[in-house]
Design goal:
Number of helices: 5
Number of strands: 4
Structural class: alpha+beta
CATH topology of the largest domain: Alpha-Beta Plaits
CATH class of the largest domain: Alpha Beta
Oligomer: single chain
Number of domains: 2
CATH architecture of the largest domain: 2-Layer Sandwich
Strand content: 15-25%
Shape: elongated
Distance between the termini: 29 Å
Helix content: 25-40%
Amino acid sequence: MTKNTGYYLIQKRAVPEVLQKVVEVNKLLASGRARTVNEATNAVGISRSTYYKYADDVEEFRDSSEGTTLTIFCEINDERGLLADMLGIISESRANILTIHQSIPLNGVASLSVSFQILEDTDNINNMLEKIEGLDGVRRLRVTGRE
């Protein structure tokens, strides 16, 4: 029997709480704030068996992968300055914008794909994506590629 090693990239709000707690256990152990798995699992409120079941399969999206190219897809309202605001957030985060593809707006909505490179001094990508997603006029945002 072969093991399927496929991956999914999903938004945090779609991840079940138990899996988020596994990530928290890993953070506690890596930071030294918990010395043992038992201590860390007690701190976040899951059993050790639950932790061990998922420990090797769940990890937080790493946003500091220098040289990584990330591609996002957005559906945005056709509003003056919205694209500039989005690109400004990426630029302020010190990521290197590589490509921008925008469709002609239909019914007031445009599709947008932006690829950018994560550099050594790029800020937290999760924060950047949350800022973009929080802009008025951004209807949908998802990460569609990571190389």
